[in-house]
Design brief:
With 167 residues, the chain is α+β, with helices and mostly antiparallel strands. Helix content is 15%, strand content 36%. The strands form two sheets. Strands 1-2-3-8-5 form a five-stranded antiparallel beta sheet, covered by helices on one side. Strands 4-7-6 form a three-stranded antiparallel beta sheet, with no helix packed on it. A hairpin with a 4-residue loop joins strand 1 and strand 2. The mean pLDDT is 87.
């Protein structure tokens, strides 16, 4: 607890030292604290600006990919104006410069994907990340066996949000 505001000490560590559970002296000029605040602010703007996240609740949620060994999970969130959101989480300490995420053949909208752009990445340097795993354009690969996949870079311990442009 307290990680969302990037306190140097957790609430428990502060409690054990007889300090207030919240470090009220932090402000946005503090390096990591300010970067985390900017990330949360941008994530809130993303959520509000894209109705795919909230418009139809759980109805517009569909799993794309889950690979437990690599701790990578991906899912879709709704369609609005022929644009769909894909969210990819990497819960591993390992980053991938090239990672293939197969899209489910049972999804009728997969064939409609014309392009995909990265619209949010928690690994950006402005959020305190490495800044070295940015995807300017997501590659959409059509394999001979009719599978379609995203090829992209995935940073460690990060979340990437893509906007798919559908035909």
């Amino acid at each position: 607890m307290g990680d969302e505001v990037a306190q140097p000490l957790s609430w428990y560590q502060r409690f054990r030292r007889n300090l207030s559970s919240m470090d009220w002296s932090l402000d946005n000029s503090s390096s990591l604290h300010g970067q985390i605040q900017e990330c949360i602010r941008d994530l809130n703007h993303l959520y509000i600006g894209y109705p795919q996240f909230w418009q139809n609740g759980e109805q517009d949620f569909s799993m794309i990919y889950e690979y437990g060994q690599n701790l990578v999970v991906a899912y879709h969130r709704g369609i609005h104006n022929n644009r769909r959101i894909a969210v990819i989480h990497n819960f591993s300490h390992r980053g991938y410069k090239t990672y293939d995420i197969p899209l489910p053949g049972s999804d009728p909208n997969v064939a409609r994907i014309r392009s995909a752009d990265e619209i949010f990445n928690t690994d950006l340097s402005k959020y305190g990340g490495s800044g070295s795993f940015q995807n300017q354009q997501i590659k959409i690969i059509h394999n001979n066996d009719r599978t379609i996949l995203f090829r992209l870079s995935i940073p460690s311990l990060a979340t990437i949000v893509l906007e798919e442009h559908l035909a």
